Amino acid sequence: MVGFLFYIAVFLVVLTVLVFVHEFGHYWVARRNGVRVEVFSIGFGPELFGFTDHAQTRWKISAVPLGGYVKMFGDANEASVPGAGVTSMSPAEREVSFHHKRVGQRAAVVAAGPIANFLFAVLVMAGLFLFEGHPFPPAVVGAVEPASAAERAGFEAGDRIVSVDGRRIDRFAELSFLVHGSGGEPLAFTVERAGQELSLEASADPVTLETADGRPVESYRLGLRAETGPYGLVESVIKSAEETARLTWMTLVSVGEMVTGDRGTEELGGPLRIAQMAGDVAQVSVPALIWFTAILSINLGLINLFPIPMLDGGHLLFYAFEALRGRPLGERAQEYGFRIGLALVLMLMIFATWNDLVQLRVVAFLKDLIS
Predict the structure, then answer these.
(1) pTM for this entry
(2) What Å distances lie between residue 175 and 100, 130, 133, 139, CA to CA?
(3) What is the sign of the dihedral through the CA atoms of 352, 357, 360 and 361?
(4) What are the DSSP calls for 139-173, one per residue?
(5) What pLDDT does 177 receive?
(6) Eight-class DSSP state of 101
(7) Architecture, CATH, for domain 141-226
């Protein structure tokens, strides 16, 4: 029971931080554009506690802690659907109404949430690189040991290892796993150096290692060291921005492969699997949990930019049509769009939760009970 509560607590802390960052992005840009923000909520449903600030914004924690929202003046609900009284507002009310701002201002407010998640990830990873180094370094060579198999094969510091025996790798730990299991057989490497791809071949040297209890174990060593850091301030920011861009691209590629059928959808996880992963990572180390939080922030920002009504990307799509047409889409078109978006989001949540139940063997457990 204690372990279960620990997992839930870690998950809620991580989720609350990310939701606050996302919604604060909306809030901050809205206030900069003269929009009155009525509610800033972490969670949905009945309010548990909160306060009202000098700008008449109600800051609150709500009962269902799976998300959050910012409700602006003129909104009918948490999804920023225009309220019934938008067309009959007084000039003073129009001045602070979200729906009476220019299309560029509304787009900036909507885009600010995902952008805040990306900026948060860059900031968090930069701090991690500055003080701790990279907890899960990419497959980039930091140093080549003298007289090693790697030196004989022609590896150089700065090389990015793209693949080993045709298997693409991203993290240095993957390389270590493949080398240890190679049995000393030749390995074919694809390496990126100075913007060009090279082919190298190396056979790892046999070594004898000791386990924690002092037992000898036969293994293999290539002679490469990871580029781990810690780094200087400027280098930390640069590497953090590069890592954010790389993780974003990898996520997009993965989603594209799922859509085309080249990748299984079983990897798609929902809140249950995220909670499990958050708890597992928290038990590894605090830096690992910080890294995991940054990755989730990137994913949250990216998913919200998908052009699905109900998500920020759907709103931006509507604003793009408005900018091209010179006037907003009709109420019926927007209503149908939000209905379709809601259906897609619900279907995705149900599918991801089903994946969670299967992966966590809850479905198998229930089948065993029935049979």
Answers:
(1) 0.80
(2) 55, 24, 19, 7
(3) negative
(4) SBEEEE-TTSHHHHHT--TTPEEEEETTEE--BHH
(5) 84
(6) S
(7) Roll (2.30)
Give me Rg for the CA atoms of the chain.
Answer: 25
For residue 228, give the amino acid letter.
Answer: T
SS3 percent helix, strand, coil of the chain, rounded to 5, is: 55, 20, 25
For the beta carbon of residue 123, count every other beta carbon within 10 angstroms: 16
In the chain (371 residues long), the average pLDDT of successive 10-residue segments reads 78 92 96 93 92 93 90 76 74 87 93 96 94 86 90 90 89 85 87 90 84 76 85 92 90 80 68 79 86 92 87 89 82 74 73 62 47 52
Please name which of 23, 55, 56, 29 lies closest in space to residue 41, comparing C-alpha atoms. 23
Residue 216, token pair as written in the block: 């000898």
What per-residue string of b and e applies to 20-38 under the rule 16 or more CB within 10 Å gives b? bbbbbbbbbbbeebebbbb
Counting every residue, how long is the chain? 371
Name the residue ranges covered by the structural domains of the chain.
141-226
Bridge partners of 64, per DSSP, are: 44
Catalytic positions = 23
- Torsion of the alpha carbons at 359, 364, 365 and 371, rounded to the nearest 10: 170
How many other C-beta atoms lie within 10 A of the C-beta of residue 185?
10
Q: For 251, phi and psi rounded to 5 degrees?
A: -65, -45
Contacts of 156 (CB under 8 A, 6+ apart): 141, 144, 193
Across 129-149, b (16+ Cβ under 10 Å) vs e yields: bbebbbbbbbbbbbebeeebb
**CB proximity list for 145: less than 8 A, separation 6 or greater:** 151, 223, 224, 225
Of the candidates 157, 173, 174, the residue with the CA atom closest to the CA atom of residue 165:
174
pLDDT at 85: 72
DSSP state string for 270-292? -HHHHHHHHHHHHHH-HHHHHHH
